[in-house]
Amino acid sequence: MITVGNIKIDVPVFLAPMSGATDAPFRRQASKFGAPVVVTEMIAGSELATGRKDMVWRIARPENTYPFVVQLAGRDPEWMFEASGIAAKAGADIIDINMGCPARKVTGGQSGSALMRDLDLARSLIVATREGSDKPVTVKMRLGWDDNSLNAPELAQICEEEDVKLLTVHGRTRCQFYEGHADWSKVKAVSDACNLPVIVNGDINTSKDAQIALNESAAQGVMVGRAAMGQPWLLGQIASELTGNVFKAPSFSTKLEALCEQISDSIELYGERLGVRVFRKHLAAFIDSAKELQIDNAQRDNIRRNLCQINNDTELKSEIKKLNHLSNLKIEAEVQ
Fold it and tell me: pLDDT tens, 46-105?
């Protein structure tokens, strides 16, 4: 168990903030299947403060989600102050600052991991965000900008001085983007440099990965990102298995029902036309990862392509439910 301010987290397994992926409908499913903590997509502080519609969408709080973590990004302390207050009023329990995003459109604006090259500005943003609301503030970072500037421990010390409550460290530098493999052992330098809870992130796909990452990093928890796409139950599985419990996987029909729920939530949030289109990336990831579909790659590609061309939500739900037949065919063959 760890504490973030006055919030207790019994099993620190976090769903990573992923732009275009961890929207409210997906976070709702992850929470439903047992994810202890979910984080919003990265939200630009200035654009949230000025009411940009897509940023307001990103701050939607799914029902039955606690704690609700909103991640903000920016380089202007004034806007981060304003956005912190807006996030708190929207129901955020924790406010996270993005100092790790490697995308050029983010770092080009001196936000995300670019802040690891300007620690004075990073400190100013932490102070502004903390003063903008009464919610505990956390920070997500990388190991550094490149291999010649692995300054995550220095940033961690600044975070501790400025009353940050928790750190998440992705085991790559910004210049690595997502290449190679995350180096969990290098996160240990951050764990050693401060007294804050540290969450290790990067290439954690299974509970085995999670345990190895914890051991190598001396972190107190893990954050799971891309592996959760199409598998919102993965967080619950990892949390369960890390605590020595047997995870009861949802049936294939339950997974299909969850997909249909996600379609409905997506339409409610974005409207019918955009809601179906936004959902497609989740559907494609599900088709790619579904072990229950005992089909070859060509068949899988064909199913994915056909489903992702459907624009009507009623028709799409009907076709998704028919996938259960492919799973049943395998079961029947095994019985015979």
Answer: 888 887 777 777 888 887 789 999 999 999 999 999 999 999 999 999 999 999 999 888
Which residues are CB-neighbours of 247 under 8 A, at least 6 positions away?
236, 237, 240, 241
Whether 101 is catalytic: yes
Judge contact between 217 and 143, C-beta under 8 A: no
Q: CA dihedral in degrees (102, 104, 107, 113; nearest 10)? A: 10
Choose the catalytic residue: 101, 159, 175, 194. 101
Q: DSSP states of 230-254 as a string?
A: T-TTHHHHHHHHHTTPPP-PPPHHH
Q: Which parts of the chain fold into alpha helices (H)?
A: 24-32, 45-49, 53-58, 77-89, 104-107, 119-132, 152-161, 188-193, 207-217, 234-242, 252-270, 272-289, 297-307, 313-322, 324-335
Instruction: Give one DSSP letter per residue of 119-158, joined into a string.
Output: HHHHHHHHHHHHHH-SS-EEEEEES-SSTT---HHHHHHH
* Per-residue pLDDT reduced to its tens digit, 228-252: 999 999 999 999 999 999 999 999 9
CATH superfamily of 2-242: Aldolase class I (3.20.20.70)
∠ CA 234-237-239, rounded to 5°: 110
